[in-house]
From TrEMBL:
It is an enzyme of class 1 (oxidoreductase). It comes from Aquipuribacter hungaricus. The glycine cleavage system is composed of four proteins: P, T, L and H. The glycine cleavage system catalyzes the degradation of glycine. The P protein binds the alpha-amino group of glycine through its pyridoxal phosphate cofactor; CO(2) is released and the remaining methylamine moiety is then transferred to the lipoamide cofactor of the H protein. This is Glycine dehydrogenase (decarboxylating). The gene is gcvP. Residues 791-912 form the Glycine dehydrogenase C-terminal domain. Gene3D superfamilies: Aspartate Aminotransferase, domain 1, Type I PLP-dependent aspartate aminotransferase-like (Major domain).
């Protein structure tokens, strides 16, 4: 932690180049950026752009920058403070083995981790196919019809299930939600955090100790109250596996629907919840090859029964077709997106854990159904060995039917836990008289022996049988009969050669940051340096259980503490929580802190949240989830918050005002001069200011929101601090708060230092996605104060350079008082829509032919493109982008002049596939070469695998799992470019059981 002000970057005394010089894009003459905008220097440009009233003049107090070698050496010393102990704690986190071919070619491959959310589906077919495989895996395991492309973790997925069931119900407002008392404790806590602001009452549902969940438990728990839903845990936290059919029927009889939180590995052996009547199934795919990472990131999952898919939170991959009729994939049902529905959104989650979902899906592809069952049986057998031994030495085993976890009564549970630790194993302390032991893929005989030795010592016996005593418990009529993973993708790639080539084909179908610039406004797609990424697979960080004793995680806790300190320094706040595992969770945590503060001071009537019309839609959705009413504030003609309208809204809602949510710099790409005045007006009325930190990369080292009026912010570490997007996830969204909100940061029931916090947890693990926090730690450690400030300056300069180069060809919609933009600029496409009928889609798809991902389309203003070049792009790449945008404008001029009809132009036919260009029936009025090589060069050409996709067709004919080959006519089996994975007859059959069939397997043409 810093103890003195950061010093200027030291002179290089050896051969190593400072990391900041590698992170920043190469610019032959940095002054060229400033001169292009009419300023004599970058400092003059910054002075003209950032309002003087918010500028910080002192340097950031951060440790001096280290070069890459020294930063990794220091991080190695930090990692050495961790102690990796065999995890047998359970509670939803398990030891697992990431197949090396997947670890090297997905987790460590920039083609996967630098990709953006697949909003441009034509250049995202690879990861969309991988996500379709994930969805198919989930629907197969759960026995339900539709699964989404992943959620943040199991507890938040369970909370989303609760609110989904409430929306789907026709129950009265006072209807309650039943929660199985054997639910994971962190899930129960997150449910409570999410339920309380919405006025949802949680009622415990005790299903007893038997193997059959009793139907009469439901009316006993309800005591005459109406119910809209229930959450059951399968297997329970205790390890007990219960037949849920009777209790599910009882909930339905009472007027509710049922969600089940299920272990996906257990579902390879157990009857799926969907076959027991569940409407929703949620859980975590962590044990499918994703390291524990002290809590994340992990892919949560959600599957629903047919009829509930339009209420699904997050993302859903569906099958559609392109302009030539070829099968193609896209994100389906996009009306659920928050920027469209805002406060009416069904969820504030606008992301997925894509990288982790891909790993989990490929884990299943690698092992197949028979391999998954073999791993499940291994865990089941090891747990049975422990149970058999405990019984043999006279101890009582409470779990009468288990999958991988057994709970044992012992005289002194703490002594047993300590004795097991001496043998190199962590087991779970349930209470003073019980321990729980969980086996997994990594459990070996020596681990079982360590546990049985601890149990023997507790039993009072002098000697016991061999740990192998005791047969696996009979799963009885809950043994799974239906097939799963029958699609050919789960049986085709058994050799490393096969899977390696499959992963390569998928990656080749995609456009990611390793290919070229992704100029997305507000999304900050910049360099994720290899040095920053190296540590995420180190065992010391990757293999820690989040509920391991604190002294075993001293290194990771130092990373957390360092980042909390550094981020507080960068933002000017007094305290930081690293728990939120996405930007949306950070928004919710920040608003809950504000709500908790008001309630603690008796201001329970303060529930109005003012939100500018330009704000990201998650802001409004998060406010509703925090129990607030959204009131929209207008923006003026220059894109700023209309201060007069704001003051009027404040006056109208003065006694009820809870908060203002504002993004700074604004989503319109400008530094608003009145930001301090705006904050003061809100504070004067008793409200709090939530500043959305999505655009913090335009502030670091130049201004601090905690010092110019904001009370709380969430920070998108996947933007400013280089955590990769990973195709749409992982992300980290910590919050910073001023001192008066410190006590309202999110707590956690299983972390003693957080257990007493007023506000409950928003994520499953105490420190959220701790497994990737070494990425921003390394970035800050290598950049230092000067490097971070330099990055901010260059980000602003690059955006202004692009705006200056494109003026005269494209109108820049908003600028600040001095005519400059912040770190992004909005190009107005509406004039050419009127003059030539050219749309933002036409321009976005034509940019693919030039070798670019499109900028952000039609947000925050419809009919515009928001461009953010970032500080890590070379000037040559910025010029190439500007040249492409100018060339596209010239093609539009040819449409305006009548040379081409827009429908016959290369703009409307973009993107051009190789198949299109080699078609003998070419009849377009422009040459093939112009379609293929609009920039005039073929070097490094990216070929999109499909043409423009018909999104509406995909929504009308929803198919969201791997369809059979018959759905695609003569499509090549397994062709990665189409996103199809055909179903082979009999492939993946399990024990001769019949395959489950459902509407989800019907081809698009048949729907």
């Amino acid at each position: 932690m810093p103890t003195s002000p950061a010093q200027p970057r030291p002179e290089t005394t050896g051969p190593r180049t400072p990391f900041a010089d590698r992170h920043l894009g190469h610019v032959p003459d940095a002054g060229a950026y400033a001169r292009a905008t009419g300023h004599e220097s970058l400092e003059a440009l910054v002075e003209a752009t950032v309002p003087a009233g918010i500028r910080m003049r002192e340097p950031l107090d951060l440790p001096p920058a280290l070069d890459e070698e020294d930063a990794l050496a220091e991080l190695r010393r930090v990692a050495a403070r961790n102690r990796v102990v065999q995890p047998m704690i359970g509670l939803g986190y398990h030891g697992t083995v990431t197949p090396p071919v997947v670890r090297r070619n997905v987790l460590q491959d920039p083609a996967w981790y630098t990709a953006y959310t697949p909003y441009q589906p034509e250049i995202s077919q690879g990861r969309l196919e991988a996500l379709l495989t994930f969805q198919t895996l989930v629907t197969d395991l759960t026995g339900l019809d539709v699964a989404n492309a992943s959620l943040l973790d199991e507890p938040t997925a369970a909370a989303e299930a609760m609110t989904l069931l409430r929306r789907a119900a026709k129950a009265p407002d006072d209807a309650v939600f039943l929660v199985d008392t054997d639910t994971l404790p962190q899930t129960r806590a997150v449910l409570q955090t999410r339920a309380e602001p919405l006025g949802i009452a949680l009622v415990d549902l005790d299903l007893g100790a038997g193997v059959d969940a009793p139907a009469d438990a439901v009316p006993a728990a309800l005591a005459g109250r109406p119910v809209f839903g229930a959450l059951l845990q399968y297997p329970g936290a205790s390890g007990q596996v219960r037949d849920l059919r009777a209790v599910v029927a009882a909930v339905v009889e009472a007027g509710g629907r049922v969600a089940v939180a299920a272990d996906p590995l257990a579902l390879t052996l157990l009857t799926p919840p969907g076959e027991q009547g569940a409407d929703v199934v949620v859980g975590s795919m962590q044990r499918f090859g994703v390291p524990m990472g002290y809590g994340g990131p992990h892919a949560g999952y959600m599957a629903v029964r047919d009829g509930l898919q339009r209420l699904l939170p997050g993302r859903l991959v569906g099958v559609s077709k392109d302009a030539a009729g070829r099968p193609a994939l896209r994100l389906a049902l996009q009306t659920r997106e928050q920027h469209i529905r805002r406060e009416k959104a069904t969820s504030n989650i606008c992301t997925a854990q894509v990288l982790l979902a891909v790993i989990a899906g490929m884990y299943a592809v690698w092992h197949g159904p028979e391999g998954l069952r073999r791993i499940a049986r291994h865990a089941h057998d090891k747990a049975a060995q422990v149970a058999g031994y405990a019984t043999a030495v006279g101890l009582t085993v409470e779990t009468t039917r288990s999958f991988d976890t057994v709970t044992v009564q012992v005289p002194d549970a703490r002594q047993v836990v300590a004795r097991a630790l001496e043998g190199g194993v962590n087991i779970r302390l349930v209470d003073d008289g019980r321990v729980a032991v969980t086996a997994d893929e990594t459990t070996r005989d020596e681990h079982v022996r360590a546990v049985t030795a601890a149990l023997l010592a507790a039993s009072g016996c002098e000697d016991g049988p061999e740990p192998s005593a005791g047969a696996a418990q009979d799963l009885g009529d809950l043994a799974r009969q239906s097939k799963f993973c029958t699609n050919e993708v789960f049986s085709r790639y058994r050799s490393e050669t096969g899977l390696l080539r499959y992963l390569r084909r998928l990656a080749d179908a995609d456009f990611a940051l390793d290919r070229g610039m992704i100029p997305l406004g507000s999304c900050t797609m910049k360099l994720n340096a290899t040095t920053e990424m190296e540590s995420i697979t180190w065992s010391e960080f990757a293999d820690l259980h989040p509920f391991a004793p604190a002294d075993q995680a001293a290194g990771t806790r130092q990373v957390v503490a360092d980042l909390e300190t550094w981020l507080a320094e960068v933002t000017g706040y007094d305290a930081v929580s690293m728990q939120p595992n996405s930007g949306a969770q950070g928004e919710l945590a920040g608003l809950l802190a504000i709500r908790g503060y008001h309630h603690a001071h008796g201001d329970t009537a303060r529930d109005v949240c003012l939100i500018p019309s330009s704000a990201h839609g998650t802001n409004a959705a998060s406010a509703v989830m925090a129990g607030m009413r959204v009131v929209v504030v207008a923006c003026d003609a220059d894109g700023n918050v209309d201060v007069d309208d704001l003051r009027a809204r404040i006056e109208t809602h003065r006694d009820a005002l809870a908060a203002l949510m504002i993004t700074y710099p604004s989503t319109h790409g400008v530094f608003e001069e009145a930001v301090t005045e705006i904050c003061d007006a809100v504070h004067e009325a008793g409200g709090q200011v939530y500043l959305d930190g999505a655009n913090l990369n335009a502030l670091v080292g130049l201004a601090r929101p905690g010092k110019f009026g904001a009370d709380v912010s969430h920070l998108n570490l996947h933007k400013t601090f280089c955590i990769p997007h990973g195709g749409g996830g992982p992300g980290v969204g910590p919050i910073g708060v001023r001192e008066h909100l410190r006590d309202f940061l999110p707590g956690h029931p299983l972390e003693p230092t957080l257990a007493g916090n007023v506000v409950g947890p928003v994520s499953g693990a105490p420190y959220g996605s701790a497994g990737i926090l070494t990425i921003p730690w390394t970035y800050v450690r290598m950049m230092g104060a000067e490097g971070l400030t330099e990055a901010t300056t260059r980000a602003i300069a690059a955006a202004n350079y692009v705006a200056a180069r494109l003026r005269g060809h494209w109108d820049v919609l908003y600028t600040g008082r001095t005519g400059t933009v912040a770190h992004e600029c909005i190009l107005d496409v509406r004039p050419v829509a009127k003059s030539a009928g050219v749309t933002v889609d036409d321009i976005a798809k034509r940019l693919v032919d030039h070798g670019f991902h499109a900028p952000t389309m039609s947000w925050p203003v419809a009919g515009t493109l928001m461009v953010e070049p970032t500080e890590s792009e070379d000037q040559a790449e910025l010029d190439r982008f500007c040249d492409a945008m100018i060339a596209i404008r010239e093609e539009i001029a040819r449409v305006e002049a009548g040379e081409w009809a827009v429908a016959d132009s290369p703009l409307r036919h973009a993107p051009h596939t190789a198949e299109d260009l080699t078609d003998d029936a070419w009849d377009r009025p422009y040459p093939r070469r112009l379609g293929a090589y609009p920039s005039g060069t073929s070097r490094g050409k990216y070929w999109p695998p499909v043409g423009r996709i018909d999104g509406a067709y995909g929504d009308r004919n929803l198919v969201c799992a791997c369809p059979p080959v018959s759905a695609f006519g003569e499509a090549e089996p397994g062709a990665a470019v189409t996103g199809t994975v055909p179903e082979a007859s009999g492939a993946g059959a399990v024990d001769g059981a019949p395959a489950r069939t459902s509407a989800r397997t019907v081809g698009a043409a048949g729907r």
